[in-house]
């Protein structure tokens, strides 16, 4: 069975995230979408871990081979614990590549059997980030084109409270 791992902080999940997850679900038998603890973002997270998991589960409910989970340790260790050998990372722009490439090398160093596959984001989502969605939503802007329809109202309500 070919299993892959799509990690992220997903604060909140965007159409860009969903695009990569949907494409990965067509390439692999099982896709683990793992809400990771990003220690560099801990003070600036808008959604709790539970909320992020719930938003992703609602967003991927149409995908039978996607499993949503959380983890606060090293990604390479999660992969080992779940017998996963492929990490799927979406790239929005060339600027994303350097950081993602460094992470892939570190993960490979920790877990020699781990490979990273980079999927370029679709043209419609290249500019999209969770930070941009939060900024637009918190200022009262319309985020309907940026987040999955299944969670649009949940995200909008939460961002308007902030």
Protein described:
- By secondary structure, the chain is of the alpha/beta class.
- It has one domain (3-127): Rossmann fold (3-Layer(aba) Sandwich), CATH 3.40.50.
- It has helices at residues 15-27, 49-59, 75-81, 94-110, 130-138, 152-161; strands at 3-8, 30-36, 66-71, 86-91, 115-120.
- Strands 3-2-1-4-5 form a 5-stranded parallel beta sheet, with helices on both faces.
- β2, α2 (49-59) and β3 (66-71) form a beta-alpha-beta unit.
- The model has no long low-confidence stretch (mean pLDDT 93).
Give the biggest beta sheet. 5 strands, parallel
Mean pLDDT: 93
State the end-to-end distance. 43 Å
Specify Rg, calculated over alpha carbons: 15 Å
Q: Which overall shape is indicated by the principal axes computed on the Cα atoms?
A: globular
Strand content: 15-25%
The fold-level CATH name is Rossmann fold
Counting H and I runs of at least 4 residues, what is the number of helices?
6
Question: What is the class in the CATH system?
Answer: Alpha Beta
Give the helix level as a range of percent: 40-55%
Structural class: alpha/beta
Number of domains: 1
Uncertain regions: pLDDT < 50 for 5+ in a row?
none
CATH superfamily: HUPs
Number of strands: 5
Helices and strands, in order, run as EHEHEHEHEHH
CATH hierarchy: architecture: 3-Layer(aba) Sandwich
């Amino acid at each position: 069975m070919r299993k892959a791992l799509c990690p992220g902080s997903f604060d909140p999940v965007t159409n860009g995230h969903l695009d990569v997850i949907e494409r990965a679900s067509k390439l692999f038998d099982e896709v683990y979408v793992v809400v990771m603890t990003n220690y560099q973002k801990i003070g600036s997270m808008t959604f709790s871990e539970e909320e992020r998991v719930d938003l992703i589960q609602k967003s991927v409910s149409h995908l039978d081979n996607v499993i949503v989970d959380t983890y606060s340790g090293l990604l390479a260790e999660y992969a080992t614990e779940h017998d996963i050998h492929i990490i799927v990372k979406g790239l929005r722009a060339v600027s994303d590549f350097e950081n993602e490439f460094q992470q892939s090398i570190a993960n490979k160093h920790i877990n020699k059997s781990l490979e990273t596959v980079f999927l370029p984001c679709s043209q419609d989502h290249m500019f999209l980030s969770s930070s941009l969605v939060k900024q637009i939503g918190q200022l009262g802007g319309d985020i309907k084109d940026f987040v999955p329809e299944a969670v649009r109202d949940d995200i909008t309500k939460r961002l308007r409270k902030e």
